[in-house]
Amino acid sequence: MSKILPKGASKGPISLVYRFYRQVLPEARLQLESWRKLAIQIPDAELSKQALASINTKQFHCEGGSVYATADLANRHVLIPLIVAFQTISDYLDNLCDRSTSMDGKDFRQLHQSMLDAVDPSAVPASYYEFHPETNDNGYLTLLVRTCQTCICLLPSYAKVQEQVKLLVGLYCDLQVHKHIDRALREQALLEWWASHKEKYPSLEWNEFSAATGSTLGVFALFLAAAQKDLADDEATAIHEAYFPYIGGVHILLDYLIDQQEDIEGGDLNFCSYYRSPQEAADRIGSIAEEAKRRSATLNHSRFHGMVVEGLQAMYLSDPKVNGQSNVRLARKIIMKNSPLSRLFFWIFSMWVRKSH
Description:
Elements: H1 13-40, H2 45-57, H3 59-65, H4 76-98, H5 105-118, H6 140-152, H7 158-180, H8 183-195, H9 206-213, H10 217-226, H11 235-258, H12 260-266, H13 278-296, H14 302-317, H15 326-335, H16 340-356
């Protein structure tokens, strides 16, 4: 099997961070800027507003996802545009469903068909705004879809990962539909959805399963694997089972953990609010993180995937909003207790945040 990681790339977190900031982040930002310019030109004021807001306030989603390109710099010209375009669709649709003018599950389902089409190179883009109040985006969403399809066609082993990608994207779309409908209906919808999946995941609670479906990292890991010319037949399944529900679960549960105060004030659904105490939240997230590390150690290029888990812990738990929430500070102490690599990443991210401000 050909190596994903270039010579010298596996030296450790400092090398990873250096490559990310010097060789990947600038290209990701150029891609984002091109989408921002197109978002400005969207004729419909509401759609333009939400497209721009999704880029301006969630830029770090695309930037963070692009870390997967550090593991294969030779293919970053494919991976960065693909990851940025796919994540931009995700963030744009999240805004359309969460902050815009519709609460119609049928509308949300049709909008998210774009994500399923984006990972299927043979799909013909549909009328994604068919049930949405606003429709004229000047081809913005379709262009995002076609950009993903074009990039995917350049991944030599995509056929070996496509089914696993579709499974993850399908679960993501289901979550977005269920969690954005009327507040009085969403929890019951999520519980009924969980009932159809819980036999496969007996170690999880419903809120943990739901959170895990909200991560796009497993999709990015599969994109990265597909860039190999001689990907092993069983590698896609191994990546899927490591990322879902474990690495993806850590990703989104930490995101919800640090947003608890904001979500209480905004009346938004937060999957960490279903834990009975900060101790339980920390114990459960810590347990899922340990399983994520164990599973990542079984993958090819395990060190990179392991650093992703450690980096996620550090990135979220070094966020300044943690300092104002005593329950999250407790969780941080527990989760990072036995993770020296996370503490190193924590220091790196803390220095970066301090420098940025």
